[in-house]
Structure formats: C-alpha cells, structure tokens
C-alpha cells in the first residue's frame, strides 16, 4: 500500500468522525478552511526549491547530540524531511514510510534526517513511537523552517481550535509563536544545492518515500 | 504657422537628433526645418531644444511637448482614416515582432490572409526570441510569451497555453517514460537556456521542483524543438511549440497528472503613443484567427 493510500484511508476515517479521534464535523471544517487559506496564500511557492542553495543548520537530535548539515553533506547527499510533530498522525505515518525507505538511501550513501519545531522529549517520543533509526532534530523556535521558507503562523481561529483540542503547540515546541512548518522533503547535493523539493501546504498530502530514490541515486553518481 | 506640420517637424528632429536628417526625411531644406522649430519655440514662448556640441537634446519642456505632439499626430492620422471611412483601409507599414518558432508555426501562415484583407498595407516581421526594445526598434506591435514585467508597455492577453514535458516515442522507447517528476533525474533533458534546468510542477496544492540532468543546452526554442525531434531527450515546452507534432503523435507528453505553470501569450504595444489603427486591426485579426 502506498503512503498516500494509507494517509487517504486514515483521513477518510478521521473525517468520518470515527474513533479514536471522534472529531465533530465542525472541527473538520475549520481544519479545511485553514488548509485552503494556506494553499491560497501561495506560501509554498515562495519556499526554497530545487536550484536554491540549502540553508545550513546545526541542531540537536533527540539525545542532545549536535547534528550539522555541513558534516552530513561531507558524507553524501542529504534527504531532509520537515514535519509538524508527534501530535500529527499524518507526520507519524510519513516518518514510518521514510524509515522503510532508509535502506535504499543508505545504499547510495545518503543521510536521512527529519526536522520539527518540537522539543527533544517530543522528538524522543517520535523516535520511540515510530521505531525510527534516523536522526530527529529539534528546530528551536522554527528557525531552520523559517530559513527554508516553510514556517507560517496559524490563523487565530485555528489556534482557538488547537487550544480546545489540547494541542498545546507552545508547550510542545517551547515557543509561544503558534507557528509550524509546512511539511516538505528536500534532497540536497554535496555542493549544498537543492536537487529536489516538494512542499505540501495541505498536510494530508505527502510524497512516496521511494520518489526520492532516483534523485539520491543521481546525486551519488555525480559524487562518484 | 501650420501647427500640425510644426509638431511633425519637431518630432522628427528629436527622433533623428539632427536638423539635416529630419529635413531629408521630410523632403524639405534644412533652413526650413530650423525656421519651423524656431517659430514653434517663439509661438510657445519656451525653448524646446538645447543645441550643444553633442547634438540636439530636448529640454524638459521639449520632452513634455514631444510626448503630446506624438499623440496629437497619431490622433490626427486616425481621424483622417476614420473620416475616409472603413472602406479606405489601412495604409503604410506595420512592424510586428514575435519569437522565431512561434511565428514560424502560428503567425506567418496567417499573414497572407491579413495582407489580402489590407491591400495597401506592408508588413515587417522582426523575429527574435529575446525581448527586444520595442521603442528603439520601432515596433508597432509585439507578440510575447510569459510574464509581463515591463510597466512601459501596454499588453493584452490573447491566450493561455499549457506547458508540458515532451518527448518522442523513440526516446520513450529507449529511456522509458517517467512516472514521477523525480524520475526525470534518470532522464536526459534538453534544456532551453532561458528557462534553466530546474523544472517546477504542481499537483493539487503540492509544489515540486527537480533539477534535471542535461548534456544539451540550447539558446533558442527552434534548437530545443530540433533536439527533441532528433530523440535527444525530454524538454519542457508549450503546446504551441509542438502543435503539429502533438496532433500527429510524433511527440508525446509525459507526467499528465502534474501541471507546469501555464504560458500566456500577449499582444504588446509600446506606450506613450496611442495604439495605431493598424496595430489594433492586426491584434484583432490575430486574436480571432489564433483562437478561432
């Protein structure tokens, strides 16, 4: 089953109000409105894309080790995934799909890291819950997401909804700004230039992890 | 003093930058030109031209007057055409500018009909893939593709065209058909240097971009077309660029579920002068024929 098929199946149950979430229709409508407005804003078109130089970063993983993009690029191409947090079921499903594709990335000497604005304890929860073997980095105050042009502030009506749902982003992210990154995938070549970019302002849409393999393979061939 | 004739003399002097050249174009003697400009300056009570060792340059008042004089002359010409009635037709020369490949496939084949409809009109077609300076090149109307960024131009959108990833059946047979944009990195691309090697796609709300691999990069659309037709690889192109081949199937589109930013076709007129009746007639003819 493809990743998108899994996400679609989850979304169908979620939006039908099935347990364990059992959300009412009014909540779904608010979420749809926020997604539509984010798409309409054109923010995804202004984010970093193939051909741009990737902003460099130095962030802590779930165990507190510093991970540096320049060090990763010395070893090979870099696959980078921006996700929202362990509270987002779509993100968890995607992280599991990335884990499944990791042996293929390894084959071409590519590093895989995922970045979210959540704190280290929440990153540890992501690792544990999804049985991940790759680095999960904490983007404190969303600065790297900002540098990639992915960070946006939630509209006030969505903040109200998240508060009601006890989706406490200021606590999860140790950041009062109520901002998130749009989910995105990048493949970065060893020269630091982005070779592939995919940005999903609609967080229920994610690319198949295997889609990035031809790009990683080509990036590795350039190095060889 | 004939004010309209004086205006025309002044405009010619500024455009040519010399009294003698203006005199030659107007088929009068140089003293007549000098006298006419002097009379005009006396009548207006301001200096219109500064005469220096570097030649003639309009003063600030001269520049303002130039602009309005040009419009007045064009209005007068239009009034004459209108007064003679529609049957009198269009006269003289119309300079049209367009991109080479687009003109070869779409524009030039239409022109005999336009010439037949306007027996007293001559056409000059300037073909150039680059965006040339319309005022400097004396272009009356240009057909341009892409985004309009120059605020000095008046543009009217004629049509919008899909862009797609295209290749020949022979190329697809040899290299396979990509099923995702990321697979393009396993393919050979023919890159049009004006557009570069990053190809951007959309599917629903998703924005995707990928750097393509290309060993063949070309500066003119005509060359991109020839390379694709020689099975050299895949290219991004508008439907317009390959309309004959898409009809016959000798070129096919890939990645149908992904869309590329569309391409707009504009009719562009240099501003600062009213669109001439000739330019307007051409735009109307072209729009009807192209979309018809």
Automatic annotation (TrEMBL), chain A:
Function as written in the Swiss-Prot or TrEMBL entry: Thiol-specific peroxidase that catalyzes the reduction of hydrogen peroxide and organic hydroperoxides to water and alcohols, respectively. Plays a role in cell protection against oxidative stress by detoxifying peroxides and as sensor of hydrogen peroxide-mediated signaling events.
Annotated EC: 1.11.1.24
Protein name: thioredoxin-dependent peroxiredoxin
Every Thioredoxin domain range: 48-221
Annotated Pfam families: AhpC-TSA (PF00578)
Example GO BP: cell redox homeostasis
GO terms, molecular function: thioredoxin peroxidase activity
Protein family per UniProt: Belongs to the peroxiredoxin family. BCP/PrxQ subfamily.
InterPro entries according to UniProt: AhpC/TSA (IPR000866), Peroxiredoxin_BCP/PrxQ (IPR050924), Thioredoxin-like_sf (IPR036249), Thioredoxin_domain (IPR013766)
GO cellular component: cytoplasm
Gene3D superfamilies xrefs: Glutaredoxin
Keywords: Antioxidant, Disulfide bond, Oxidoreductase, Peroxidase, Redox-active center
Catalysed reactions listed for this entry: a hydroperoxide + [thioredoxin]-dithiol = an alcohol + [thioredoxin]-disulfide + H2O
SUPFAM superfamilies, sorted: Thioredoxin-like (SSF52833)
Enzyme class: oxidoreductase
Automatic annotation (TrEMBL), chain B:
Record field: transmembrane: none
Cited Gene3D superfamilies: 3.40.190.290, Winged helix-like DNA-binding domain superfamily/Winged helix DNA-binding domain
Top-level lineage group: Bacteria
Molecular function terms, GO-annotated: DNA binding; DNA-binding transcription factor activity
Residue span(s) of domain HTH lysR-type: 1-59
Record carries keyword Transcription regulation: yes
Keyword DNA-binding: yes
Keywords on record: DNA-binding, Transcription, Transcription regulation
A Pfam family the protein falls into: HTH_1
Task of the protein: NodD regulates the expression of the nodABCFE genes which encode other nodulation proteins. NodD is also a negative regulator of its own expression. Binds flavonoids as inducers.
PANTHER family (alphabetical): HTH-TYPE TRANSCRIPTIONAL REGULATOR, TRANSCRIPTIONAL REGULATOR
Family: Belongs to the LysR transcriptional regulatory family.
Entry protein name: DNA-binding transcriptional LysR family regulator
Species this protein is from: Bradyrhizobium macuxiense
